[in-house]
Amino acid sequence: MDAALDICNKLTVNVFEIYIMLRFFDIIFNGKVIDKRMEKIAFCVKLVLTLLVDYYVPYVWINFMVSLSTIFLLACCYRATMYKKIMVAIGVNLILALSETLVALLIGNKNFGLFAKAANEKSIALFLSRIVFWIIVVCAGQWNKKNKAIRLSPKIWIFQSIVILTTLGELLIICWQGSTSKILESMSLLGAEITIYLLIYLYDCLANIFIERTQAELVQKEKEYYHREAELIQQNQETTRQFQHDWKNRIQVMNQLADQEQWEELRKYLSDVREKAAQIQIYSNTGNIVVDSVMNSKLDMAKKKEIAVAACIVLPKDIEIDEDDMVVILGNLLDNAIEANEYVQGEKRIELVLCYEDGCVLIHIQNTFDRTLITRKGTYLTRKKNTSMHGIGIKSIKDTVEKYHGITEMTIDGNLFTADIMMYL
Question: Phi and psi of 374, rounded to 5°?
Fold first, then answer.
C-alpha cells in the first residue's frame, strides 16, 4: 500500500512538473510548437526517465544530467534557435534547483545538494518545490503579458489562493510535526496534489475559455463594424455610379458647346469634369456591389496616403460567398497593408490580385513595411494604441477562410509582407 501511494505521488508530481514546464515554454517560445506529436513523445520520455532515476539511481549528478537533457528534449519541440533552446533548458533546470533549495530551507532540511531532487523519503518536499516552480512561472507569465485588457475576476484569484495556501499549510504542519503513519502522510500528500493540480488546471482552462470568448466577441464586433462600413461605402459608391451614368449626357453638353463655338465655356466645363473624374478612380468593377465598394474605398484611401496601388480584380458578379465574410477578409487585409505602409520611409506600395478559378477564390496581397513586426504566439500584432484588438484582424481572416476549408499563408521577404489566401466555394 505504501509503495503504491509513493509511486502515485511521484508520478503525479512529475506530471505536474512537466505541465508547468510546458506552460513556461509557451511563454518563452511564444507557443511555437513544431510538432504536437513530438511534444507528447518528449513528455513521456521525460516522465519515464525521471521516475527510473528516482527509484534506481538517485544520484545527484545523474539526476542533474537526466533533468537537463530531458528539459532540452522538450525545448526542442519548439521553434527557436539552438542557442535559445540550450539556455532555456539550463535556466529551467536552475529554477527547479532554486525551488528545491528554498523548500529545503523552509522545512529545515539541511542535507540537500544544489542540483539534487528531493530524496525519495521526502515526497512532500518535492511537491512543495514544484508549487514554488509554478509560482515562478505564473509571475513570469504576468510579467510577460503584453495584453492587459483580458483578465479574470480577482475573486477567482482569491479563491484559488485560499485553497492552495490552506492545503500547503496542512502539508507543512505534517512536515514539521512528523507523522506517526507513513500511509496517512502519503494519502494526505496525494489528496493535496490532486486538489491543487486540478484547481490549477481548471483555472488555466477557465482562462483560455474566457480569452477565446472575449476574442470571439471582438471578432463579432469587428464583423458588425465592417458590415456598417460596407453599407456606408455602398452609399458613397452611388455617387460614382451616377457620375458614370451621366457620362453620355456630359458628352452631349460638350458637343453642344463645341458646335456653338463657346470655347471658353467648353474649357471650363472640361476642367470641372476632369476634376471630378480625378477624384473617382475605379479599381474594381466586377458588378459585385460589396467587393467593388470595399476595394474601391480602401484602395482610394491608400492612394490618398501616397501609397502606390496596383490591382487586378477578376471576380464573378454573383459569387457564392457570404458578403460579410468577404468584407471581413478584404477589409482586414487592406487595413493591415495600409497601416504597415504608414511606417515606411521611402517607396510605399500595395499590390493586389483577386480572382476566381475552378471554384476557388484566390487573394494575393503584397505590401511594403518597415521590417518591424510585433508577434505573439505566431500571430502578427497591430502597433495601434488599442491593444485589446491585438491579433484580432488576422484571427478574423483565418477563421473566416477556414469556414470555406481554405488556406491562409503569410510570408516575409525583406521589406515585403505577402498574404495569400485560397478559398473553396
Answer: -105, 125
Helix, strand, coil % in the chain, rounded to nearest 5:
65, 10, 25
Return the closest-CA partner of residue 397 out of 326, 338, 343: 326
311 closest CA partner among 388, 364, 267: 364
Cβ atoms of residues 107 and 125 within 8 Å: yes
Sheet with 416-424: list strands edge to edge: 308-314, 349-357, 360-368, 416-424, 407-413
Q: Nearest-CA neighbor of 197 among 164, 158, 155?
A: 164
What is the DSSP code string of 376-407? ETTEEE--SS-GGGTTHHHHHHHHHHHHTT-E
- Residues 205-230 have pLDDT tens digits of 877 787 777 767 766 766 666 666 66
Question: How many angstroms separate the CA atoms of 302 and 333, rounded?
Answer: 12
DSSP annotation of 246: T
Looking only at the bridges linking them, the beta strands covering 416-424 and 360-368 are antiparallel
> pTM higher than 0.70 for the full model?
no
Measured N-to-C along each axis, helices 182-245 and 123-144 cross at an angle, to the nearest 10 degrees, of 20
Say how far apart CA 337 and CA 311 lie, in whole Å.
13
